[in-house]
Amino acid sequence: MTQTTTVPEIGNQSQNQDEAAPLYNVVLLNDDDHSYDYVIEMLQRLFCFSVEQAYEHAVEVDSKQRTVLITCGLQEAEFGRDQILAYGPDHRIPHCKGSMSALVEPAA
């Protein structure tokens, strides 16, 4: 009788670990202190969205009070959130004091 043992390849182990890692959403929150132009510009610069994609997110955040921008690993999500929080005020609106709000949440 011959006994066969299967040894997983290292590449497969790495891939399985990546697949098992939890995912997180970067969520942009609405406010009345930023213009559509600001949102579109910010999303194009920070997330490389097309004008159309950025506009769709601007409409969604305006109508639903939030929009999920990306879903990714925790470090990437925190980086995306931090970039939004550091983007600065909307120069088009005189009373705007700072960046938009964003958060990281576990993906469903």
Question: What does this entry look like structurally?
Answer:
- The protein has one domain (22-106): Ribosomal Protein L30, Chain: A, CATH 3.30.1390.10.
- It is built from four helices and three strands; from the N terminus they run αβααβαβ.
- It has helices spanning 10-20, 36-47, 51-64, 74-85, and strands at residues 24-29, 66-72, 101-106.
- It has a three-stranded antiparallel beta sheet with strand order 2-1-3.
- The chain is globular.
- The termini are far apart.
CATH C-level category:
Alpha Beta
Strand order of the largest sheet: 2-1-3
Q: Count the domains.
A: 1
Class by SSE composition? alpha+beta
Radius of gyration: 20 Å
Helix content: 40-55%
Q: What is the distance, rounded to the nearest whole angstrom, between the alpha carbons of the first and last residues?
A: 48 Å
Series of secondary-structure elements, N-terminal to C-terminal: HEHHEHE
Characteristics:
108 residues; alpha+beta; Ribosomal Protein L30, Chain: A; 3-stranded antiparallel sheet; 18% strand; globular
Summarize the structure.
With 108 residues, the protein is an alpha+beta fold.
